[in-house]
């Protein structure tokens, strides 16, 4: 992709309206596999952010007035362009984020799927008429776009977290200002470039890149022209942004952290459970908000599960995401490596058995060897904190109620998984889990067709499915009288 190659040799600008703005300052984007700087990107501040908000605000009236079939066609073209550039986007993602190339290609397909879905769903953004309380009155409900949307996104899914917000927002007639994570701004800029190529009008999509997010965040959460803040990231930052949004009473969506349990009951198919465990835990080197953080395994199946899981984890190939056959890439930064090591050391010091891994990998200082810990207990840090790395801690339980209690004993409530065959147990467990999403005999649950989101401190709102469009619309009740 020529524009990307050119960017990588030059300072990459941010996008404000129709202007690719270089700004006064820039910051480095590093390849986590090698530590090398792959590009420098414009470092924007509060004034640039206000300009981007103004561009989005000024583009809003024309965009919401654009006939829905035209909006839909433009989104469809964006979807096609992203798919056509799968190889380039995937390579860029691997370079700045580290995930193996095959996974990055998967993310391009997944990310694009939201654009395709919402290009169609836009046509179904219907209002309603209601029964009236007076013979001379008619009651209407209009569905209108909320207005300017700020999309603040994390580094772990540099494309999909953006399309999951921008596609429904644009479909509904909103305009957006994206603030991508400082580690992965390039994929966001490439996606926005392709949106303009697809014909989306200038100002409908803006990207503000920044090495210090607080100044940008403050404008996005307090400027009255921004009507919705859609955030994906950690729970502490989400709480901070929610508080900032209160001053102008913005609509918010918060896709925050998790502490996903993966329960394996005695009657589970152990091989299927291990397959699910590998998919749910080790994708993206364990840096996925819905990835399993805790395996809760019943007595009768415990030893078989631990031994089969260890065998499979030992075989996971660690290496640079661009190298053929790599399954586990680097962690995003040194702090991530330190946290993983702290969790492993803490568990071992409190009596956990190290089955494999437990140390840095020879591939480099950001690579961690996939790890299985057995005999893990609730006193250990892995019980409460999101590890966000390739570590599978296996807890033991005896009775079903104990597993449910352990699973729910957390302030988080994003995703949970369990493996069982008895249908009563399946229904009971599914109903008892206090989570926004549950995988039953399934370790991979994300799709644009279903509502993604959490309860408790994992967040507010849903992304994907027709519910995802509702998040970007307001209801306007109209009472027509005197008839
Ligand atoms: P993070 O909270 O550190 O950062 C997320 C985004 O917020 C980044 O763009 C960052 O620059 C920005 N940010 C940070 N401080 C800000 C401020 N004061 N004002 C405005 N913006 C600010 O999270 P991260 O480390 O990038 O991502 C990992 C976290 O995201 C994990 O906790 C993970 O579980 C969560 N996550 C959740 C989902 C979900 O859908 N629920 C999806 C992916 C990741």
Provide structural commentary.
There is one protein chain. With 483 residues, the protein is α/β, with parallel strands linked by helices. It folds into two domains: 3-256 and 458-479, Aldehyde Dehydrogenase, Chain A, domain 1; 261-440, Aldehyde Dehydrogenase, Chain A, domain 2 (3-Layer(aba) Sandwich), CATH 3.40.309. It is 40% helix and 22% strand. It has 15 helices and 23 strands. The strands form six sheets. Strands 15-16-17-14-13-19-20 form a seven-stranded mixed sheet, sandwiched between helices. The chain has a six-stranded mixed sheet with strand order 10-9-8-11-12-22, sandwiched between helices. Helix 8 packs across helix 9 and helix 10 crosses helix 11 (299-314). It starts with a helix and ends with a strand. Bound molecules: nicotinamide-adenine-dinucleotide (NAD). Residues 152-157, 161, 179, 181-182, 213-214, 217, 232-234, 237, 240-241, 255-258, 289, 386, 414, 454, 459 line the site of nicotinamide-adenine-dinucleotide.
